[in-house]
Amino acid sequence: MSTEQPLILGDVPSLSKLYVNAAATAARRRMLGFQAATVLPQGSHEVRGVQADVGNLTAYQHLIGESASDVLPAGFIHALAFPVAMSVLNRDDFPLPLLGMIHLQNHVEQLQAVQFGELLDIRSWAEDMRGHRAGTQLDVVAEVRSSADGALLWRGVSTYLAKGVFLPGVDKATTAAAPGEFTPPALTAVWQLGVDTGRLYAAVSGDFNPIHLSLLSAKALGLPRSIAHGMYLASRALADVGSVKSEAFRWDVKFEAPVFLPARVALEISTLHFASGAWEASDYVAWNPRSGRRHFSGSVTAL
């Protein structure tokens, strides 16, 4: 984490404006032949006193299949922090393009339950830019603390790939762990995802990235159809884990293949226990029931 004082933002940034600005920046750099920096900017961005909107919270819980409550789902907290994280990637001195970033994986530590109505301070920064066989990857860290006493409540690390972008001074990775051979297990659920899934999640998360919204907007960015948000899929899997998870847990997800909409997604959840019978962890995996191709996998582990 940077030791520099954070840049305090007056309000939570608008993701729509960030995407528009990112598109304008990319066009300007292409026209002017601008060479971006080759190192990550120092410092972090922070917004203080953030409070969840009750209507948005309820709609989010309904969308992912979680019971309505005053406790913020871990994925909802990610959505609250996401605009602050994206503002870091949208800086003029940021070396990688925001548009086209591929979400590779997420690691979240939920340290205690976060109640609706609690004021939150959200801080984010980028770190560990490194080579990938297909481009350049980096981690974007977000921390959510209580505005009242500064206690750390939630911490997320999102790993992104700028595909096809190779920066001077960043060595290209020559090896990478290949996904293991996958044999679909006995499923525990099948999701039916409509073509509007991306738009519905955008409405509750604020993430109106064009690749998720429609056939036309996705095709404009080189995709055959729109794809589901990765964090929608991961959050829905977390909701399917259900009430067995404790208030403090570690949540991991690794994305492998996009879910093109509309889609059927098969899911398997397996729960492990301590010898005493207390919940310890739950693994989950999702795949395409027709092709057998794995979409994502992860785990939820008690802290």
Features of this protein?
303 residues, alpha+beta, Thiol Ester Dehydrase, Chain A, 2 domains, 11-stranded mixed β-sheet, 6 helices, 11 strands, 32% strand
What does it look like?
This protein has 303 residues and is an alpha+beta fold. The protein folds into 2 domains: 1-170, Hotdog Thioesterase (Thiol Ester Dehydrase, Chain A), CATH 3.10.129; 177-303, Hotdog Thioesterase (Thiol Ester Dehydrase, Chain A, Roll). 24% of the residues lie in helices and 32% in strands. It has 6 helices and 11 strands. It has helices at 15-32, 54-64, 74-89, 197-205, 215-220, 230-241, and strands spanning 7-9, 45-50, 102-110, 120-132, 135-146, 152-163, 189-193, 249-255, 263-273, 279-287, 294-302. It has an 11-stranded mixed beta sheet with strand order 1-2-4-5-6-3-8-11-10-9-7, with helices on one face. Helix 2 runs antiparallel to helix 4 and helix 3 (74-89) runs antiparallel to helix 6. The longest helix has 18 residues, at 15-32. The protein is globular.
